[in-house]
Amino acid sequence: MKRILLTLSALCLGSGLAAGGLHFGILQSTDATVRDLRKQILATESPVPTPETEGCGNLYLGSVPSGFAMNGIFIAWDPTTSHFVATFAANEVEIVDGSGNYVSSFGGTGTGNGQLNTPAGVAVDGSGDIYVCDSGNNRIQVFSSAGGYKFQFSENSSDAPLEDPQGIALDVSGNAYVSDYIGQIWVFDKSGNFLRSFGSGGSGNGNLSEPEGLRLDGSGNIYVADYGNNRVEEFTNSGTYVNQFGSAGSGTGQLSGPTDLDVLSTGDIYVADYENNRIEGFTNAGAYLTQFGVVGAAPGQFSGPSSLVMGPGGDFYVCDSGNYRVQVMSASGSYIKQYGNGGNGNGQFEVPTGVAIGGNGNIYVADGQNQRVQILNPGGAYVGQFTTAGFSEPAGVAVGVSSNVYVADSGKELVDIFTSAGTFVTSFGSAGSGPGQFSEPLGVATDSVGNVYVADALNYRVQVFDSGGTFKFQFGTQGSGPGKFNIPDDIAVAANGNIYVSDAGNSRVEIFNSAGTFISQFGSLGSGPGQFNGTSGIALGANGDVYVGDNDNGRVEVFNSAGVFQRESGSFGVGPGQFEEGRSYFAISGNGPLYASDATNNRVDEFCP
Amino acid sequence: MRKFSQCAFVLGLLVCGASLAYAGGSPSDSTQTASNSGTAGDTSAPTGDLAPGSSEASPNLWTAASTPAQPGVFALGVGFPDIRARYDFSTRFDVELKAAGETSTQAYSARLYFRALRWNELGAYAGAETGYLRFDGVYSLDGTGFFVEPLVGAEYFIDKRWFLNVDIGPAFVNVSSSGENIGEWQWTVNTALYYTLF
């Protein structure tokens, strides 16, 4: 697979596709910048298409895993359930369990009771009630632990006209401390009655500039992330200024746009240093202790850490908002795991590639970097996995007529055969260019009589085997003319025996008859309807519709069996139903949903067919 | 690792070219090259059938950087993917208009070259480029932008009329769409093949 990516990059040199940090020509540099602009827009807007629950119109239905799939803003821990609660820019509050599994969500856009407009800080009291800063509606709303609306306070209050509340913390009595945009801290009792306020806008001692998250220590003193002043300020419970620490910058002990903090039982204070993409630790006197995290998307790296909380096990849960995930870090700052965007737990993926559907409806997903194939039930729940063949880089997956599962391993240059339960049967193929040998086998497909078709990507051909792996014939050579390939990445076989091959390097789909004779082709390089910017995966629906991944345009395009463009779904991005550029594969069974592996977002998306 | 390899290759090419240029660019060499470079108005004319690498090989677009050049030379180039028109308007400076495009993105820019070194077939230069950007449907966005890029590069003269160049620089790319704006530095490599018209 790595060689494929390198080769694709080389192919892209003339077509303006990004090739990494070094760009060939100003068009590639522009492409990379526009991509980051798109991410910036996604981070400031709700990128989430509304899941459709009725009807089926080529829309996003859901993802596996589903927990924390969006850009969390603030996070809190519910001591009564050991669940984590996070607010999202999509006007939603989401609850996941301690393992990151989705539990429930509530909210919705609006101004009515229980609806939200740009929710920010969140806190949970000792009885499990959830307090949410409904910043766009200038109020605090209180929900039960199940998400039921209970009451609200401060809306249109003459006592405490909140202006864009951002952070909230609760003391042991249930009093709520709320920071708002204009630089004040408002205190309410547990029924929402205004008690007092302190602070004011500015940069002097005791002033605040766009304060965000806040917490109380064991003695009731209040620590506020003073975002605009790049510092943390400490107040007594009555609002008297005590201390401050931090200054603008990226050096040790400095802060750049701190958005949240947590006060540990030791009194130490850990700050989400948002603009510096790190977490910094201080003593309660403000002396620098430690830091962890650098900018990036790899495990342990951050892109805008917006909130953090120490969980019951002594680990930090950090909203890594720009990477659309929650990372779990040890108290010393070591990466442990993440939710929402990759992982190696059951039902989590790291660069999922091939996906196929068995006769019983189970979904087989090649979990690339985890070197395994996971089995999910039709509802997306984890069923099992098989790793017995010692996968290197599992890519395409297909289920044969005998229910055997075929897995193309592009790292080991062979195809493994398993029973539907995951018991290894045999493998066939070896590295090379002769008949029955492979160079980066990617897609694999089967037909109704048991033949197995393998997209032999860097041999620029398709090879056909019987169900036991005996070579039968091959077709295709390198090139861009009819019947030729430039990195064929996936295959699908129609009921009439016609073979559809997605030809990634030529940004097209070619159709062959069952003997491998070229019939027609469709698609060209571009971003318009019916065009591709590097194909990525192909599947056929029951009515003959052809689903083709459009890699660098971040979408799935649907054609009829003759190759006429019908519709598209998805867009570039990391939200549900969106795709980041990266290899994707598709599977569809009968009239069922379309399953799409999203290698970069580490999940499997489900779409209406 | 891939990025490193690409950088290493390009930088290696540049360093190699610049080193050769520097090593061979002694005043005596330059003088000798200049003495064989023809007269004004004759820059594209051959000065003899000299083997590549010969110290008497004739520059066709300009003469050695340390000697007077002949303004007025005009060349067309094809880059990846762009077309260029280049004009030598002084001893050391060239200007160039460049248009790059594909289905969804276009760039229209101007370049200024300063020829720093020249030794036989090899030359080294510095320069700057600025231009206008337009994109349509890139990552679902439509918009415009601009870029500026300082650059250093090397060129290789294949024969009397054909030459190649490659350069690298940090391009500041600023794009706007949907009311949002971003500006980023992007390491950018450019290369092109030129044909000297006159």
What is the element layout, followed by pairings?
The complex is a heterodimer of chains A (609) and B (198).
Chain A: H1 2-11, E1 22-24, H2 26-44, E2 60-64, E3 72-78, E4 83-88, E5 92-96, E6 102-107, E7 119-124, E8 130-134, E9 139-143, E10 149-153, E11 165-170, E12 176-180, E13 185-188, E14 194-198, E15 200-201, E16 207-208, E17 214-216, E18 222-226, E19 231-235, E20 241-245, E21 258-263, E22 269-273, E23 278-282, E24 288-292, E25 305-310, E26 316-320, E27 325-329, E28 335-339, E29 352-357, E30 363-367, E31 372-376, E32 382-386, E33 394-399, E34 405-409, E35 414-418, E36 424-428, E37 441-446, E38 452-456, E39 461-465, E40 471-475, E41 488-493, E42 499-503, E43 508-512, E44 518-522, E45 535-540, E46 546-550, E47 555-559, E48 565-569, E49 586-588, E50 594-598, E51 603-607
Parallel strand pairs in A: 15-16
Antiparallel strand pairs in A: 2-51, 3-4, 4-5, 5-6, 7-8, 8-9, 9-10, 11-12, 12-13, 13-14, 17-18, 18-19, 19-20, 21-22, 22-23, 23-24, 25-26, 26-27, 27-28, 29-30, 30-31, 31-32, 33-34, 34-35, 35-36, 37-38, 38-39, 39-40, 41-42, 42-43, 43-44, 45-46, 46-47, 47-48, 49-50, 50-51
Chain B: H1 2-24, H2 27-35, E1 73-79, E2 82-88, E3 93-101, E4 105-119, E5 122-138, E6 141-157, E7 162-177, E8 180-196
Antiparallel strand pairs in B: 1-2, 1-8, 2-3, 3-4, 4-5, 5-6, 6-7, 7-8
Instruction: Bin the helical content of chain B.
Output: 10-25%
Enumerate how many helices of chain B there are, as a single number: 2
Q: How would you state the average pLDDT of chain A, rounded? A: 82
Radius of gyration of chain A: 27 Å
Biggest interface, and residues per chain? A-B, 38 and 48 residues
Secondary-structure-derived class of chain B: alpha+beta
Number of domains of chain B: 1
Within the CATH hierarchy, at the fold level, what is the topology of chain B? Porin
Tell me the β content of chain B: over 45%
